[in-house]
Write a structure and sequence with these properties.
heterodimer, A: 624 residues, alpha+beta, six-stranded mixed beta sheet, five-stranded mixed beta sheet, 15 helices, B: 174 residues, mainly alpha, 7 helices
């Protein structure tokens, strides 16, 4: 709790220690970790100098999971226990995964809504698999940076819905990471590109990754990166190109039903062919069929392009929609930035050039730019750049609403609203004497409940019995800067209140995550209690330093003697316990101090915001 | 900054309809810079929560002020006209709405639906702009009843614009 740093926004008031922070690009096919060192952001290689980590995890009985290149090497010989493209399963229920081209058997469990994959090490959820990838990246970053990470920024596709974002955050928690922010991938790319090129004006970021597609339109102006609109498809990417090519190969070989091992070999051959065709006109293929025979064939670029054309057409509609939502004409777009490995495919570049009427910008490394942008943002959010000019203003990708009578969705927050955002709407009862109300939270653009994604259900009880239509229930949606939703409901005449932080219908419960944390191998030897105490003490000391500095600076100006005395007494109470051995007592002390200082905080922040916007005359903004 | 301030006061603007969109956008960036939770990333939870409230307020204010229709409705609501929805009995206007609606419904079946739709959208925008202009002078002149009628008319056009955009998206997807 560094009260100090808010004294004047954008100005540091005390020298402070550099905090280790990293940006993580948790990708469908591969992942990266980057960090800012000596003022430069770069991706961190492993001990063999490789920057990419394949997003592949292999489970074995009684051993720690293999992650990355080693796991990938076993994909064809041990397909059942080797999990690839797990990002496609994040935040999804079993029913939704039927058409996800999954190569694994799903296991339903009775006490959880989360689908799990059967492996030699037991059933695992997508969140746990992702956590293994994050742990590997965490270990790499901590080895490179020489100590524990203070925090990370993890990127997600801009078009990820609330459930997918929550699942990503849960995976980070399982991996023992402190998430400073979930950052949209195209926004991260725009940040790295904008700072590198000193770009200004409107840009479009076309991000075609392994499994997801995003198109974001941003306005860059003096360090402010304002997202105007975003659109996309979270189930469309280079993987799908591989699948198209794989289907073609299977057809050519005449193999009717490939076993799991052959299916993996076909997928890998398809991916290699796609990559080779980026700078060649044709590629020779050789595939062991498993019956001792080998199939040989040739794939030309022309055939390849015909295979993937339908996929590319699916990316162009979101481009047009984002332009329309941003109210931007293609002529106004100063540059189109290409991100994601799949944008190396020449046909992708041609189609994008045709749509925007200009050759896209392809000079940046499409694999690494997202992680680099995330590292820059992580450095800022860790507090290492308090004087920085940079600011990201992002949007919510999909509309949020509530179910109303007749299975219709009433939108409360429209898509592309700038976040953070809070919006309230009043509803009423349907029947005389109705004392409870079921609220069903949905995300999506369609009008019918059945066509939108169900995020959560909760109930407001204790509404006084009145005639139908007399009660006034105000429902407030609040979306934070991570794009995560909180919902509260209140009956206005009585003040009856209900509130939830949306836990998605297909998400892990808090209890499940706690249990996984306890069960995980890494935490077995770790004394959780000692660690909690240490963290509480650090937090407590910081809170004390911060409040002392704030009182010194502004106590006179903003507080009456009584108010000041109240804060001082909460301060003393915390100081008395901070070196003790009760983590809970310290936490309570911090909370009490925060509560006592609440008005002080508001007054200081209001004053600093006023100061930041002062010096402007009202008539400068009026127009005759 | 005070959460109870109206949006015009929050943005340091006079409470009137006319404003310069460029200056409004520049002011928004300044306010966002001063309130965005990222600026308080290293601060205590209480401060971050308060920053989220401030930033959400700034975003909502900007959304309202930058859209002429929303801005007019907000001005009228500040003036105590909240919840008043006069029905327009301007027959010529209602006839025109029916015409536009028919044209929109038929656009899909014309030889070149995209071109027909683009023409129609241009007409809709031009007519909405004319009403926005009269709304501006009505608000400046304090003609509240007339302004409320113009707002109602603009809402018709807003709905048409949305339906035209939905049709455009549909045509693109085919």
């Amino acid at each position: 709790m560094a009260l100090l740093q808010i004294a004047e926004p954008g100005q540091s008031t005390a020298p402070h220690q550099h905090r280790r922070a990293a940006g993580i690009d948790l990708g469908t096919t591969h992942s990266l970790v980057a960090s800012v060192r000596s003022g430069t952001a770069d991706t961190l290689p492993d001990m063999l100098g490789r920057h990419l980590l394949p997003s592949v995890v292999r489970y074995g009985r009684g051993v720690a999971p293999q992650v990355g290149w080693d796991a990938l090497a076993h994909a064809a010989v041990d397909p059942a226990n080797t999990i690839q493209s797990v990002k496609r399963l994040m935040g999804r229920g079993s029913a939704e995964l039927e058409d996800a081209h999954l190569h694994h058997a799903l296991v339903e469990s009775e006490d959880s809504t989360v689908p799990r994959i059967a492996t030699a090490a037991g059933a695992v959820s997508a969140v746990e698999v992702s956590a293994e990838i994050l742990k590997a990246l965490r270990a790499r970053a901590e080895a490179s940076l020489g100590g524990e990470l203070a925090g990370v920024v993890i990127t997600v596709p801009a078009y990820f819905d609330d459930a997918q974002r929550q699942a990503t955050k849960d995976a980070a928690r399982l991996a023992g990471l402190n998430v400073l922010r979930l950052l949209n991938e195209p926004t991260a790319a725009a940040l790295a590109y904008g700072l590198d090129q000193r770009a200004e004006g409107v840009i479009a970021v076309y991000d075609l990754g392994g499994g997801t597609f995003d198109l974001s339109i941003l306005r860059l102006e003096r360090g402010v990166f304002e997202v105007l609109a975003t659109a996309g498809d979270t189930a469309l990417g280079g993987d799908d190109m591989d699948r198209m090519v794989g289907a073609w190969i299977a057809e050519q070989t005449g193999v009717a039903d490939a076993d799991a091992g052959l299916a993996v070999r076909i997928r890998h051959a398809a991916r290699a062919a796609k990559e080779a065709l980026s700078d060649r006109e044709a590629v020779e293929l050789a595939l062991e069929l498993g019956d001792g025979g080998t199939w040989r064939g040739t794939l030309t670029r022309e055939t390849f392009e015909a295979l993937i054309e339908p996929l590319l057409r699916k990316t162009l509609a979101p481009c047009r929609r984002a332009l329309r939502d941003a109210d931007i004409r293609t002529e106004e777009v100063a540059d189109v930035v290409m991100v994601g490995g799949a944008t190396r495919v020449p046909l992708v570049r041609r189609r994008v050039a045709e749509l925007f009427g200009r050759a896209p910008h392809v000079d940046i490394d499409p694999d690494r730019v997202v992680a680099i942008g995330a590292a820059i943002q992580a450095d800022v959010l860790a507090g290492n750049k308090p004087d920085g000019e940079m600011l990201l203003l992002d949007v919510i990708p999909l509309s949020l609403g509530l179910e109303t009578m007749g299975g219709l969705v009433e939108k409360i927050i429209p898509r592309n609203a700038s976040i953070p955002v809070a919006r309230a709407q009043d509803f009423t009862t349907f029947k005389d004497g109705q004392t409870a109300m079921a609220l069903h939270v949905l995300q999506g653009e369609r009008e019918l409940v059945a066509d939108c994604r169900s995020l959560a259900r909760f109930e407001l009880r204790g509404i006084p019995a009145m005639v139908a239509g007399a009660a006034r229930i105000r429902v407030t949606f609040q979306v934070d800067a991570d794009g995560l939703l909180g919902v509260s409901a209140q009956e206005l005449s009585t003040g009856v209140h209900a509130e939830i932080q949306v836990r998605p219908s297909y998400g892990l419960s808090d209890g499940e995550i706690e249990r996984m944390l306890h069960d995980s191998i890494e935490h077995a030897g770790d004394d959780l209690a000692a660690r909690a105490l240490r963290e509480a003490q650090v937090e407590g000391r910081r809170a004390l330093e911060a409040v002392d500095a704030a009182l010194d600076a502004d106590g006179e100006a903003f507080l009456s003697p009584d108010e000041r005395a109240a804060i001082a007494s909460a301060r003393e109470a915390l100081a008395a316990r901070v070196e003790g051995d009760g983590a809970r007592a310290i936490k309570q002390g911090i909370e009490a101090l925060e509560k006592a200082a609440e008005l002080f905080v508001e007054r200081r922040m209001n004053a600093s915001v006023r100061a930041a916007i002062a010096g402007r005359r009202v008539d400068e903004f009026s127009q005759d | 900054m005070d959460l109870a301030q109206d949006y015009f006061a929050l943005f340091g603007l006079p409470r009137r309809f006319a404003l310069d969109p460029e200056a409004l956008a520049a002011r928004y960036r300044e306010l966002a810079r001063a309130t965005h939770p990222d600026r308080y990333a290293a601060a205590a939870d209480a401060e971050r929560r308060y920053a989220v409230q401030l930033a959400a307020r700034v975003n909502e204010a900007y959304r309202t002020l930058k859209d002429p229709l929303e801005r007019a409705r907000y001005l009228l609501a500040l003036d105590g006209a909240d919840g008043e929805h006069p029905t327009t009995c301007d027959t010529a206007f209602l006839m025109r709405q029916m015409e536009l609606r028919e044209a929109l419904a038929e656009a899909r079946d014309t030889p070149d639906p995209c071109a027909a739709l683009a023409d129609l959208e241009r007409e809709i925008r031009a007519e909405a702009a004319a009403i926005t202009a009269s709304l501006a002078s009505e608000l400046e002149a304090g003609e509240r009843e007339a302004a409320l009628v113009s707002v109602t008319k603009l809402q018709f056009y807003r709905k048409l614009e949305q339906e035209a955009a939905a049709l455009e998206a549909e045509l693109e997807d085919e």
